[in-house]
């Protein structure tokens, strides 16, 4: 059982109510010295004491739940100078998570202000670092890829209109026609000018390309329903984010509509039950719901409803060149925001075996381990001479959850040699002895000598830096 250390949060509760340690200890029925040890994280919170605290202060037990430390540490590394050590960042994230989140939020606002200044002065190079796509990705990352209001609205609608596997597209098309007077029409891709779908409000017609598969058609129809029936919820979410840029607003609206679509096609409780019973076997889930691999993986990464949580997954989509077009996470996996991702990650190995499921136990520099599942998906719009698209889809979770997945069968998750040492990205990775490194680590002094060469492409100066290996 995981021990709960929450001294800083308990001390804050006590001080906010101007209660002394002696008085609080008396009300909790424990000694003042024991309370002092709890507040300084020398002793963990026991269940009986935790229950008495929640009753006394009127807070939920989740107030003391452990924060996502790996995620906070990674975000702090980008917000603070390199001279701040990882151990200091970990201590801050563990003992003062609210302060850590405040620092990260200040850094986020600094980047936004910098972007706005760059827009004003016309510095396009600065603006390029924070595109609308980046901002929307960051939005879903901060929300841990879970939007409760949209999820619950979609589940309620699915129950109301009777969304059933095998009949999803027909049921959704009927909803558009009967409730909104919108007809769904399939058109040849050439007639749509290469577009996959187009909604024309003047004729109340939703045109879908014939190149779309049934599951993709269902997703487009469901997203259109979301844009109409959940417009108020979507507007409120965007308003909360205080997004001023029109392009970012549009992309965020599309992202939220697609989120609603997945939640409508895969109703939360029904999908979670199926995922648990099938031990998160993605192939079985795609067959059961008649939807694609990417759609199922994306939905698996959103199952974070309180008191009904699925496995907390990170989801990523990359191409052969390493470009990350999607990154969403319900866990603390530290996606890189300052350069390419790690070439030792199995999402890239998937391109060598198209269509085959690849698994990997990956160890991060901080010692955290993840089980990653990766597979390629392909898309084609036209005929023989038309170029298609190929991506690798990755889905990962911490190894402490891996026993719930069929992909962990027969693997020793704790064996030292079983894990591949990877990092968040070459510029921020602490594995200084990695021979695969493609960029010098930020803030590190290199040991350069014109009279010698090394197998490691960016050797660090001895004594100045310490390599971190799994």
Automatic annotation (TrEMBL):
Residues 10-64 form the HTH cro/C1-type domain. Signal peptide: none annotated. Keywords: DNA-binding, Transcription, Transcription regulation. InterPro entries: Cro/C1-type_HTH (IPR001387), HTH_RamB (IPR026281), IrrE_HExxH (IPR010359), Lambda_DNA-bd_dom_sf (IPR010982), ScfR_C (IPR018653), TransReg_Diox_bact_type (IPR050807). Gene3D superfamilies: lambda repressor-like DNA-binding domains (1.10.260.40). This is DNA-binding protein. One of its GO terms (molecular function) is DNA-binding transcription factor activity. Belongs to the short-chain fatty acyl-CoA assimilation regulator (ScfR) family. The keyword DNA-binding applies. Pfam families: HTH_3, Peptidase_M78, ScfRs. GO terms for cellular component: cytosol. CDD domains: HTH_XRE (cd00093).
């Amino acid at each position: 059982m995981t021990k709960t250390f929450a001294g800083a949060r308990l001390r804050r509760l006590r001080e906010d109510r101007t209660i002394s340690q002696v008085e609080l200890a008396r009300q909790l029925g424990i000694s003042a010295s024991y309370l002092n040890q709890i507040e300084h994280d020398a002793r963990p919170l026991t269940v009986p004491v935790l229950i008495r605290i929640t009753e006394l202060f009127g807070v939920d037990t989740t107030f003391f739940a452990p924060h996502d430390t790996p995620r906070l540490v990674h975000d702090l590394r980008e917000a603070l100078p390199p001279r701040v050590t990882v151990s200091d960042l970990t201590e801050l994230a563990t003992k003062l998570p609210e302060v850590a989140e405040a620092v990260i939020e200040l850094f986020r606002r600094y980047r936004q202000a910098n972007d706005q200044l760059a827009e004003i002065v016309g510095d396009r190079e600065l603006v390029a670092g924070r595109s609308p796509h980046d901002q929307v990705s960051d939005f879903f990352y901060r929300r841990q890829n879970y939007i409760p209001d949209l999820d619950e609205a979609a589940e309620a609608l699915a129950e109301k209109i009777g969304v059933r596997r095998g009949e999803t597209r027909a049921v959704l098309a009927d909803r558009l026609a009967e409730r909104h007077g919108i007809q769904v029409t399939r058109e040849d891709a050439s007639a749509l000018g290469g577009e996959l779908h187009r909604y024309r409000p003047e004729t109340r017609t939703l045109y879908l390309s014939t190149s779309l598969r049934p599951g993709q058609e269902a997703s487009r129809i469901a997203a259109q329903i979301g844009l109409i029936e959940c417009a108020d919820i979507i507007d409120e979410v965007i308003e909360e984010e205080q997004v001023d840029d029109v392009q970012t607003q549009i992309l965020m609206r599309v992202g939220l509509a697609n989120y609603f679509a997945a939640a409508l096609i895969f109703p939360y409780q029904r999908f979670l039950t199926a995922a648990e019973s099938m031990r998160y076997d993605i192939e079985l889930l795609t067959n059961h719901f008649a939807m694609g691999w990417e759609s199922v993986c994306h939905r698996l990464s959103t199952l974070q409803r309180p008191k009904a949580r699925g496995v907390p997954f990170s989801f990523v989509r990359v191409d052969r060149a390493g470009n990350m077009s999607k990154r969403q996470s319900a866990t603390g996996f530290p996606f890189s925001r300052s350069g390419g991702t790690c070439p030792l990650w199995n999402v890239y190995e998937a391109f060598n075996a198209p269509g085959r499921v690849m698994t990997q136990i990956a160890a991060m520099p901080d010692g955290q381990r993840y089980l990653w599942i990766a597979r390629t998906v392909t898309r084609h719009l036209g005929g023989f001479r038309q170029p298609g698209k190929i991506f690798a889809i990755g889905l990962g979770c911490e190894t402490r959850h891996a026993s719930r997945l069929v992909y962990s069968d027969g693997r020793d998750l704790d064996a030292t040699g079983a894990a591949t040492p990877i990092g968040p990205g070459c510029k921020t990775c602490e594995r200084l002895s990695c021979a695969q490194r493609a960029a010098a680590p930020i803030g590190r002094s290199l040991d350069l000598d014109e009279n010698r060469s090394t197998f490691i492409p960016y050797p660090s100066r001895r004594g100045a830096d310490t390599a971190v290996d799994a």
